[in-house]
Structure formats: C-alpha cells, structure tokens
Design a protein that fits this description.
Layout (H helix, E strand, L loop, with lengths): L28 E6 L4 E4 L1 H6 L20 H16 L4 E9 L5 E12 L5 E10 L1 H12 L3 H19 L5 H9 L1 H7 L3 E8 L2 E8 L10 E3 L5 H8 L3 E3 L2 H7 L4 H4 L6 E9 L2 E10 L7 H38 L10 E8 L13 E9 L3 E9 L4 H19 L4 H14 L6 E9 L4 E7 L5 E3 L5 E3 L4 E2 L15 E5 L5 E5 L11 H14 L4 H15 L5 E8 L11 E7 L4 H17 L6 H18 L4 E8 L4 E9 L19 H8 L2 E7 L2 E10 L2
Parallel strand pairs: 16-19
Antiparallel strand pairs: 1-2, 1-5, 3-4, 4-5, 6-7, 6-11, 7-8, 9-10, 10-11, 12-22, 13-14, 14-15, 15-16, 16-20, 17-18, 17-21, 21-22, 23-24, 24-25, 25-27, 26-27
Length: about 700
C-alpha cells in the first residue's frame, strides 16, 4: 500500500494510494525504530492510535500485533521489508487495527528510512495517525456528490476492486476480496454468490454473507433452471429488476431467499477467451432496476473478476505442478541410520504473487555408506523456479551416486561441480557434504560456498563450526579450480550436527552473522528431541515468512550407556596416486580416529607407521591405496591399520646405507608396531599392523 497520490474514495484493505500531505492529520503520533537493536520507540499519541497503554508496550514492534489483524500485519510487513531491501527512502501505508472493543479502525503510517554509507538500513523514523475521520469524510463527500460524480464513483469501484484483485494469487484470495464486508459494500450488494464450471456442472465457491447460501446448490447441473446456470449457458448477463420477476423466472430458487428481501439481482457470466469459467450473482435489497451505465459497470466488473479467477486458477495449477516437482526431487524417505537420530524438514518460500516462484532449489539428502558411515548433504541451487528444482534433482542424484561409489568427500564435491558446469545451465549451487563415522564420531566436511554447519552439545550449547570452503558448484570448473579442502570435526556422543540453507538464517534488515547468532540461540533454547527441534526451527521460519525456501537436516550421534558401550569401529579412505588432497585427508582421518578411540599415548607411532605404509603403496605400485583403520576389542584394546594395493609383489626388508633415504620403512614398522604382516587379497595384497593401547 505505497503512497501514489490522493483519492476521494473509501480505501479497501490493499488500497494503493496516499492522500495529499496537506490534509489535516488527526491523532498523529511518532515512532523511532532502531533496526540494529530491534527497538521501536513510540510516543504517547502513537500508542493512543494503537489503543495501547504505555505499560502494554515493551518497545518491540511485534508487540503491536495484538492490535493488527494478521492479514493487515502480513501486508504491512511485506511492504516495509521490500522498502528496506530495494533502497527506498520512505514508505507509506493504510492499514486497519482492531481496537480494545473489537472494532476495526483505519490507520495510516509514513516511515522514512535512514541508511549508512553502504546503503544498509539502520533506522526508521515516522508517524502514525488515525485515518478513520479522513476516510469517513471522503465517503460522505462521495455520497453527496451529484449524479455525474456517482457515475465516476461506479467506475472507480471497478478500478478499486480490480486493483485489489491484482494481488489475488489463489481462487480463495479472489473470493476473500469479494466476500469481504467492504467489498460487498463497494458493490452496493446485499449478498454475493459465485460458482465455477467443472465437468458440466457448476460448483458454488462463494456465498456471502453466509445466510445467503441456499442448501442443495453446492453442485448443480448446467441444465437446472437457476440464474447462474442460465447465464453460463447463454454467455449473456441477466438483470432481474423486481421481486416479482425473480419469483416468476426462478420458482425453484425464490422460496429459499425470500428472507433476504431481495428487490433486484444481477447475474454475470465469467468469460475468458470466449469460454465460460463460471458465473457471479449480486443481490440487492435497496433498489429496483439497473440503468444502462450500471449494467455496463457490472459487466466490466465481471470481466475483471473472470480474468482474476483465470489467473488464480492458472497459478494454483502451476503451484501444484511446482510442489509436485519439488517433492519428486526431494528424497521420498530418509533411511534409518544405526547409531544416529535423523530429522529433515523443508519449507517452501512464499512470494507475494509471483507465479511459479513458490519452489526453489534447496535440498537435503542422507546417503548410507559402507562401514557404518553416512553422508549428509545440504544444498541450494540458485533461483526459485522449476528450472532450479530440476537442476537440484540432478545434483542430488549425482552427489548420491558419487558418494555411494566410495569417492572421498573432496572428490564427490569436485565431480558434482564439474557435472553442474557441464550441464550448460546458468545456475550455480552452494552445497555442504559431511561424511560421518558414527562409531568414532569423526566427520569429514567439504563446503562449496555454503554456510557453515552448527553443532549442538547434549547440554544445549550450540557452536558454529568454521570449515574451509571452495567455490559454489558449477563455478569451480569455470574458474579453473576443482579442489575442495576437507575439514575434520568430531561428534561426541549426544552431539547434534545441524545443516541448513540460508533461508533459515536470513532475516529482513539483518546480516548473515546476526542471523546465525539468532539461530544458535533458538537451537540452544530448543527441545532436546531432534524431531521436536526441527519442528521448532521450521515453525520460526514459517512465522517469519520470507522469500526463500528452507532445507534443514539434523543428525545426532546417539549416546551409549557405559554398560552397553561397544568400543570399536572402522574407517576407510581411498588414496589415489598423485592426489595430495586424498593423502592429507587420510592423515586427518588417522589422527582424528586415534584421538577418538583413546589411543593418544601411541598417536605419534600410529600416524608415522600409517604414513609410511601409504607412501610405500603409492611409490612402489601403479595403482591407488585403500587405508582402513579398525578398533579391535578382546582381552586388550588394539588399533589395526591396513593398507591395501593392487600389486601382488610382497614388500621386503632392506638395509639402507649410511646415506640412503630408503630401505628403512619396514624396519620402522617392525620396531614401532606390536605385530604386523602381509595378506594376499585377490590380485593385490594388504600390509597390516596392530598397536596395543591402554583400556
């Protein structure tokens, strides 16, 4: 409801005009809104406009919601958020408040936005005033206008309702505009009925006020002698100018509406592209007959309503298609993961009337992996349309395929980036892939332009985990960089890993860091159960609204009681020749596993021997190496390191010369390990060693 000039008409819910500033301003109050602090200072007059006592207002604009109906609040929030985002210097709006006694009262506000040198809004100052008297005076002047002014008013009524209908996104929105008390008043009618043509029948979709609904007319055949059915068949409007004419023409209907004291009626076919999509009836109890000009106005109104209904029906069809596509692209179900509690959620964006944009490219996925590991994925494809959803679906599938094939997290991400680049689309995507071994709590994280993960401890404490990252998917190949660094983090029993898209964090007027802090507070104070926590977070996102969808994945490593604790686990890493990143990842994995499994006193020995075995496999064979770590249980705790390669040639111990740099590898293994050996593995071999460590 942005100011665009003066008007002499009563203003409906979403009137787009603002009266001239020189008009008298009654009950004008002022406010000063500190966006950074989230505090809105209001003077006594402003509080009086909202019918609030000083002790009922705590300085937060949310406290005004008790006086602002939800529909009005959403429109006002949308207007202010847009003004803050698009660089506007001011905004103005009419809206209604509900006073202490329950009545609705028109109010007007004007805000002036202050921005810093970067353009970021930090303060809004403005006024708020009671507009009831102003609108009442305008209405009075209109009623007293001569006949030529009445003619203009009827034309303006069509324009006002058409303007209101322009914001209707669904069929129900169209009905709400017309069924609203103000809407019927503008039309001058006592009641309104509307039906849509469906499969050779007319289905009633609106009858207002409720007392005007006639039982048995919810669905009727087209050949039934009712006025709406007749105008659909004839494609011509029908004006009934007296009660006698109504009773004579429609004897089936008239006995049911005599209590409404109808004196005349206008039934209009709703036609789009020469095809009837429905019909509308306006019933009056204070007039007989219609002038030619009145008929022309009503026919024009019917045409406008028909266009709005067609647009709404098209939008609903597009929305159903988009939601179906979105659901088809997301996983149908999330597999259960031994040792973990999982919760996933998705919330679609809500755009104020943009067709086809209530769908986005956010997604989540969970990939079971060998050895008790699991891969967790969260991502966001650029854009909000069916193309973004289609790209998302393809990315989700290839990421899952690469992970299932056994590739390292860095390789999974780099291949996905190359895949998106080769799709020849103009979209890029942010993504985070976390591969977790739940037996050890070791998590390897790769980030491609996405926001950092969060970890919540069993006591409720929440921290942001800063991990190294690379370019978004689809851009790395374009800029010649396909390498993604891998960060290793640890989940203690009871810890919860939280992955989300930025729709859960971004808030109007706040930067990303502030949003992250707010999210951390919500997580800290949220419920312990992962499903309840996920519901809480998505409910907050729903209440906040916003123009971005939200994907959320929670993974909690289950706690084990001391009596049921089963020490032991398995980690595996594939190391390709000439891949220093994979070698580095293997070293990180070994170090994290040693610490997690309680073998810190032998950490240096284990890491040195493992590094020696991996290096030997890469230097003396032509293929890659597979590194496996196992925590073994029994009479004593042991850690076993296995390095498998594709060469059948067995290693042999050699004595190095005084200046030699090779030949000492197996000697080192023999002296530092408790036991070691070599096993044949098909066309290759496995060199293994074990370390005993304290219980």
């Amino acid at each position: 409801m942005v100011d665009r000039g003066a008007s002499e008409l009563p203003l409906p819910d979403d009137w787009l005009a603002h009266p001239d500033p020189v008009l008298a301003l009654n009950l004008m109050g002022s406010f000063d809104w500190d966006l950074d602090a989230g505090v809105m200072h209001m003077d006594a007059t402003a509080l009086e406009v909202f019918d609030l006592r000083p002790d009922e207002y705590d300085g937060k604009h949310e406290s005004l919601a008790v006086r602002v109906p939800p529909v009005e609040g959403r429109k006002l929030d949308t207007l202010v958020s847009q003004a803050l985002k698009d660089g506007s210097e001011n905004y103005g709006a009419y809206f209604r408040i509900r006073t202490r006694d329950g009545t609705l009262r028109w109010t007007h506000t004007q805000g002036y936005i202050r921005r810093d040198e970067t353009g970021r809004p930090y303060r809004v100052i403005g006024i708020v005033r009671d507009a009831t008297r102003e609108l009442r005076e305008i209405s009075a002047r209109t009623e007293q206008a001569p006949l030529d002014e009445a003619r203009h008013r009827r034309t303006d009524v069509v324009q006002v309702i058409t303007a209101a209908l322009a914001h209707a996104r669904t069929v129900q929105d169209v009905i709400d505009v017309l069924e609203d008390t103000d809407g019927i008043t503008h039309l001058g009618a006592t009641s309104l009925v509307m039906g849509l043509v469906e499969a050779g029948r007319i289905r009633m979709i609106a009858a207002g006020p409720r007392a005007s609904y006639v039982p048995g007319t919810r669905i009727t055949r087209l050949d039934v002698k009712y006025p709406m059915n007749e105008v659909v068949r004839s494609l011509a409007p029908h004006f009934i100018e007296s009660p006698e004419e109504f009773a004579e023409s429609y004897p089936l209907l008239w006995p049911h509406i005599t209590d409404l004291q109808i004196t005349s009626a206008a039934y209009l076919p709703l036609i789009v592209q020469a095809r009837p999509i429905g019909a509308m009836g306006l019933l009056y109890n204070d007039r007989r007959g219609f002038t030619r000009e009145e008929r022309d106005v009503l026919v024009a109104l019917g045409s406008s309503i028909a266009q709005s209904l067609q647009r709404a029906m098209f939008y609903e069809g597009e929305k159903d298609l988009a939601e179906g596509l979105q659901q088809a692209m997301l996983p149908r179900s999330i597999p259960s993961v031994p040792g973990a509690d999982i919760a996933v959620r998705y919330r679609a964006a809500s755009f104020g009337g943009s067709l086809g944009r209530d769908i986005g490219g956010d997604w989540y996925d969970l990939v079971p992996l060998p050895g008790g590991r699991v891969g967790a994925v969260i991502g966001d494809v650029q854009g909000h349309d069916t193309h973004a959803a289609a790209v998302m679906g393809q990315l989700r599938i290839v990421l899952k395929a690469y992970a299932t094939e056994g590739h390292t997290p860095a390789t999974v991400m780099s291949r996905a980036s190359a895949f998106l680049h080769e799709l020849d689309t103009d979209r890029f995507a942010t993504c985070l892939y976390a591969e977790a071994d739940l037996s050890t709590g070791v998590v390897q994280v790769v980030r491609a332009g996405h926001i950092d993960p969060l970890i919540r401890a069993p006591d409720g404490g929440c921290r942001r985990v800063t991990v190294d990252g690379g370019l978004p998917l689809g851009l790395s190949a374009e800029f010649g960089s396909l390498e993604y660094p891998v960060s290793t983090i640890e989940l203690d029993p009871g810890d919860t890993l939280l992955l989300c898209t930025d729709g859960l964090i971004e808030q109007p007027g706040a930067d990303l860091d502030d949003g992250m802090l707010t999210l951390q507070e919500l997580i800290t104070t949220g419920p312990d159960d992962v499903d309840d926590l996920a519901d809480r977070l998505i409910d907050v996102a729903e209440e906040r609204g916003g123009d971005d969808d939200v994907a959320l994945l929670l993974l909690r490593r289950r706690s084990r009681s001391r009596s049921s604790e089963q020490p032991g686990g398995r980690l595996q890493q594939h190391v390709a020749p000439g891949d220093p990143e994979a070698l580095t990842e293997a070293r990180h994995m070994i170090g994290a596993a040693v610490r997690t499994w309680g073998a810190r006193e032998r950490a240096d020995e284990i890491e040195l021997v493992a590094d020696e075995l991996i290096t030997n496999a890469l230097m003396h064979t032509e293929g890659s190496a597979i590194v496996t770590l196992r925590a073994l249980t029994g009479t004593e705790r042991r850690l076993r390191v296995e390095v498998e390669d594709s060469s059948s040639a067995l290693p042999r111990r050699r004595e190095a010369g005084e200046s030699g740099v090779s030949g000492r590898g197996l000697l080192l293994v023999d002296r530092l390990t408790d036991v070691w050996g070599v096993e044949a593995r098909g066309g290759g071999k496995c060199v293994w060693c074990e370390f005993v460590f304290a219980q």
